[in-house]
Recover the amino acids of this structure.
């Protein structure tokens, strides 16, 4: 089993023979709690999704990966 977030290569090089791929691209929700200084990020969220939600809280942008 292999999760496929939005940023996985379209060439299929991240896949395994005979495996199952779970497409997480529809799971892009980001929930920010400024009081607790936490964020819940779903598996298909992109960096831009996180940036968008954290800008309203004056948090710094997430580090590049």
């Amino acid at each position: 089993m292999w999760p496929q977030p939005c940023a996985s290569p379209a060439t299929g090089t991240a896949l395994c023979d005979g495996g199952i791929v779970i497409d997480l691209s529809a799971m892009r929700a980001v929930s920010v709690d400024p009081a607790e200084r936490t964020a819940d990020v779903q598996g298909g969220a992109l960096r831009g999704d996180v940036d968008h939600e954290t800008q309203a809280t004056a948090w710094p942008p997430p580090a590049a990966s």
User: Anything to note?
Assistant: Residues 26 and 44 are 6 Å apart (CA to CA). The chain has one domain: 1-13+28-65. The radius of gyration is 14 Å. The mean pLDDT is 78.
